[in-house]
Automatic annotation (TrEMBL):
Name under which the protein is recorded: Schlafen AlbA-2 domain-containing protein
Ranges of residues in domain Schlafen AlbA-2: 34-147
């Protein structure tokens, strides 16, 4: 996205990087399609702000600077309000703009007099236009805003439809894994008799970055920096990783690559820093599987030896530990989760049963039956994290709870026994084996 502020090397600055001295750079710029100046913050300007924000969001995004004269670009500091300007502008948008586009606002104080300064707002290009201000679809027309005509409205609706299609398409990415039978055979647990191969059960988290335009193709240097940060995060977590090149992404696999039969977790990192996390479920095999089946039969369940059982505790450790890597990565990169759309999916998981040796679980399944993934289509709806409901979003909490929810764990139930089971299975033990 365009930025009127540059570093000494000429790279665009983000709003968070802008300082008081940077305001001098505006002297060489004129108002235009993505930049607008206002000398003062008065009732007239306040009335126009929702219209300006909506027009930027309906176009290519832009910057509004209040406290700069539009004729000679001189700095005309405005008084610093008692409230946060982000809250003031946010309230204006809640009352006058629908839907509310993404924007950031900073009040940059005058070093010589901190009671005054300049308001700088950055409005992102909207993902789902049209954005309507006071009943009118506003778009940028040169250096001003104006009502959109019919062709522009058609284009805006087309943009929203295309973006939804891009997100839906992204949430169908698949990372290759070998079949479970091939893996277990390599570990010395070949079945007694031949049987059809079972695809590896996978838990997928999709994070589609909404604030980047497809046209803003990252350089090879940018991609290498992203991968270097991800490697550092793995190292900080005491984990090894292997980077594999794909045609449009980098796949960072946990631990060392073990050849075609590697079933360790993988993070697929795209140039715009969209992310897909794939975690293979920890399946019981060999004697562990025999013992679990015996205990389920003792609980009164008719168990088929062909069934696959997921170790609930070890899988939760694996899922949440890998999701924690993502949380640390976005912190290292200075990205907010609110820039993402998120969804989850369970691949090859239909009918796979949860297993826990907790007496509470065994008592529960004896009364109500085993928990298992009961659908063949296990992709969740897409959540948009900039909706004001996810200010404290963490990938770790999202991943852990939604994995088990999709596998049949009764989250949000008003039944005391359900809630006791949830508490038992969502709690992890420090002694649990952590398998990446």
């Amino acid at each position: 996205m365009f930025s009127p502020f540059r570093t000494a090397s000429g790279k665009p600055k983000t709003l968070a990087q802008v300082t008081w001295d940077d305001l001098a750079q505006l002297a060489d710029l004129d108002e235009g399609f993505a930049l607008e100046f206002k000398r003062s913050y008065n009732a007239s300007v306040q009335k126009k702000i929702p219209k300006i924000i909506a027009s930027f969001a309906n176009s290519r995004g832009g910057w509004l600077v209040v406290g700069i004269a539009d004729d000679d670009k001189s700095i005309c500091p405005i008084p610093k309000p008692n409230a946060d300007f982000s809250q003031i502008i946010g309230e204006l948008c809640r009352r006058h703009v629908s839907p509310i586009p993404h924007f950031d606002a900073r009040f940059i104080c005058d070093p010589a007099n901190t009671s005054q300064g300049v308001l700088v707002m950055q409005v992102a290009e909207g993902n789902f236009p049209p954005y309507i201000a006071n009943g009118i679809v506003e778009v940028r027309e040169g250096s001003t805003s104006g009502p959109a005509q019919s062709p522009a409205l058609v284009e805006l609706y087309g943009k929203a439809t295309k973006r939804r299609g891009e997100i839906a398409g992204f949430c169908q990415r698949s990372v290759y894994y070998p079949t479970a039978d091939r893996f277990f055979a390599a570990q010395g647990h070949a079945p007694a008799a031949p049987k059809p191969s079972n695809p590896t059960p996978l838990f997928d988290l999709y994070f589609y970055r909404m604030s980047k335009r497809a046209a803003e193709a990252p350089s090879r240097g940018d991609i290498n920096q992203h991968v270097a940060t991800m490697r550092k995060v793995f190292t900080d977590r005491g984990m090894g990783c292997h980077v594999q090149h794909a045609h449009d992404s980098r796949i960072i696999r946990a631990s060392a690559l073990a050849g075609a039969l590697d079933v360790h977790s993988a993070i697929e990192l795209f140039g715009d820093e969209s992310i897909k996390l794939t975690v293979p479920a920890v399946l019981l095999d060999g004697r562990e599987l025999e013992r679990a089946n015996m205990r389920l039969r003792a609980a009164g369940l008719a168990v088929d030896d062909e069934n696959r059982l997921i170790d609930a505790r070890d899988t939760l450790c694996r899922v949440t530990r890998m999701a924690t890597v993502l949380d640390k990565y976005v912190r290292e990169r200075g990205i907010a989760w609110q820039q993402y759309a998120v969804a989850y999916e369970l691949e090859n998981m239909a009918g796979v049963m949860l297993w826990s040796d907790s007496p509470l679980y065994l008592d529960y399944v004896a009364k109500r039956g085993a928990l298992f993934c009961g659908t063949t289509d296990c992709r969740s709806r897409i959540r948009y994290l900039d909706d004001g409901e996810h200010e404290s979003f963490r990938a770790r909490q999202f991943a852990g709870s939604h994995f088990f929810e999709a596998c049949g764990l009764p989250l949000g139930s008003d039944d005391d026994e359900d809630n006791a089971l949830v508490d038992a299975l969502l709690s992890t033990s420090p002694q649990a084996t952590l398998k990446e």
